Amino acid sequence: MHEAGAEPTLSLAEQIAALKPADRAHVIDHLRSADLPTFEVNWMFWGRAAQAAPEGDWRTWLIMAGRGFGKTRAGAEWVRAQAEADGRLRIALVAATAAEGRAVMIEGESGLLAIAPEGMRPHYEPSLRRLRWPNGAQAFLYSAAEPDSLRGPQHHHAWADEIAKWPEGEAVWANLTMGLRLGETPRIVATTTPRPVPLLRTLIEGTGVTVTRGRTQDNRAHLPPAFLAAMHDAYGGTRLGRQELDGELIEEVAGALWSRALIERCRARIGPPPTRVVVGVDPPAGIGGDACGIVVVATGAEGAAYVLEDASIAGAGPERWARAVADAAARHGADRVIAEANNGGAMVESVLRAADHGLPVKLVHASRGKSARAEPVAALYEAGRAFHVGAFPALEDEMAGLIAGGSYAGPGRSPDRADALVWAMTELMLGAVRRQPAMRRL
Q1: Given pLDDT bands bounded at 50, 70 and 90, which one contains residue 357?
Q2: For the whole model, what pTM was predicted?
Q3: Residues with Cβ < 8 Å from 234, sequence gap 6 or more?
Q4: In CATH, what class is 2-222?
Q5: 442 pLDDT exceeds 90?
Q6: pLDDT at residue 437 above 90?
Q7: 12 pLDDT tier (thresholds 50, 70, 90)
Q8: What are the strands of the beta sheet with 276-282, ordered from one edge?
Q9: Fewer CB under 10 Å: which end of the chain, C or N?
């Protein structure tokens, strides 16, 4: 797999539009009037760099991005360029269903019929599921719900849309690729919003695959600001938002104490008035290594716990992370700071008090591993007694990487944020049982 390099967000047209009025007028005045009509259909002019086919030797170009990024337009423009350049081509168009293929890939606002320039518009024959360009190039529509329909037909290229939605995705892909045996360099453009399905994992880890990633926000020049604001307010930072808007491939870890679904189920938009607030702290063992986990948790009158903030800081020396702890405590009116003292307890307390001499510090010592300490806290989530007020992506990634039995499969070397959460939750919710070897799952 090869990741496409970081590209400028704006197209050439958008860059011109962003110029000062005098500069913009100067550029436009120097465009010959005879050339102006061609700009309406000149994808190199209008398309963003991330929507252009990558250079180099690739067999599959995987565009894995959020909704509204412009994946469909990029796929359609690539097909159009191939078809207009060579009238001998046979191109496969594969969608999750035939109806989706027709509605999106062919007849949609960014589909092949809509983007075609005058004089090069293909003729669509719905009964044959076929597009025929004036120069003789053809494209055939297939449904991933009918994998055997791709047994036999041969093609030069293919556009595969929303492959993460395909039923029997790996079987369909195998049939498609086995039929790409015309011409010298058969290629596939695959466009999709990511989901953790086997086909996507295989492609990302495979050879000859170039991956372009992107977010809904990247196409903000062509999306209503009200839509972007509404999506951010409703889904920003959540698993759904990270997948559908930010284009992240979010995996589930087998045996994790917290599943992604469990975390989403325990999300709240607002919390009740707090009855008590603590700040959990997992100090780094050294300078410039692991992050300092700093997580603020409160309890409400009904007895549940609510995560209010992840104020963790990475790559900071003792003075900086201690100040971050003191600031978090002040912001939320915390009545106690719970700090792990296994790595230099005296030093931890001294730097915290140096940041704020009145900081109510309580040192705790870990006698078990991080995953073992986290198990009773995960049980609180399962019992509906712990919630996140908003979304905390970095913290939640670490939580989803803690595995029952002691291992860790999340980002970074250590789940520092998750450990800080565990200390805070233990203080607030499990004080009477925290010295027991284990807690019976609720």
Answers
A1: confident
A2: 0.71
A3: 241
A4: alpha beta
A5: no
A6: no
A7: low
A8: 267-268, 386-389, 305-310, 293-299, 276-282, 336-340, 361-364
A9: C
Residues in Cβ contact with 60 at an 8 Å cutoff, skipping those fewer than 6 apart:
187, 188, 189, 190, 203, 206, 208, 209, 210
At 145, list the tokens. Answer: 């719900």
Largest CA distance in the chain: 82
Which amino acid is residue 331, in one-letter code? R
Q: Which residue has the tokens 């549940």?
A: 304
Q: Where in the chain is the domain with CATH 3.30.420.280?
A: 260-429
Inter-residue contact 136 to 97 (CB < 8 Å): no
Neighbours of 113 (CB within 10 A): 15
Under DSSP, the state recorded for 311 is: -
Q: What is the pLDDT of residues 165-215, one digit of tens each?
A: 998 899 999 999 999 999 999 999 999 999 888 899 999 988 999 999 999
Residue 388 has pLDDT above 70, yes or no: yes
| Contact criterion met (CB below 8 Å) for 141 and 102 | yes
Structure tokens at 215: 């977010």
Q: What's CA 272's distance to the chain center, in Å? A: 30
pLDDT digits (tens, 9 = 90+) for 106-137: 999 999 999 998 889 999 999 999 999 999 99
**CA 28 to each of CA 14, 19, 45, 137: distance values in angstroms, whole numbers, following the listed order:** 13, 11, 13, 35
291-326 pLDDT tens trace:
899 999 999 999 999 999 999 999 888 999 999 999
> How long a stretch of residues is the chain?
442
What is the residue-averaged pLDDT of the chain? 88
- C-alpha distance from residue 407 to each of 1, 50, 368, 372 (Å): 28, 38, 13, 10
Q: Using CA atoms, how far apart are residues 233 and 227, in angstroms rounded to an integer?
A: 10
DSSP string of 169-214?
HHHHHHHHHHT--SSSS-EEEEEE-----HHHHHHHHSSSEEEEEE
Give me the residue label for tokens 């800081």.
Answer: 313
Range(s) for CATH 3.40.50.300 in the chain?
2-222
Q: How many CB atoms lie within 10 A of CB 178?
A: 12
C-beta neighbour count of 280 within 10 angstroms: 30
3 state SS of 355: helix
Q: Which CATH number fits domain 260-429: 3.90.550.10, 1.25.10.10, 3.30.70.660, 3.30.420.280?
A: 3.30.420.280
pLDDT given for residue 438 in this prediction: 33
| Distance (Å, whole) CA 261 – CA 113 | 40
Amino acid code (one letter) for 145: A
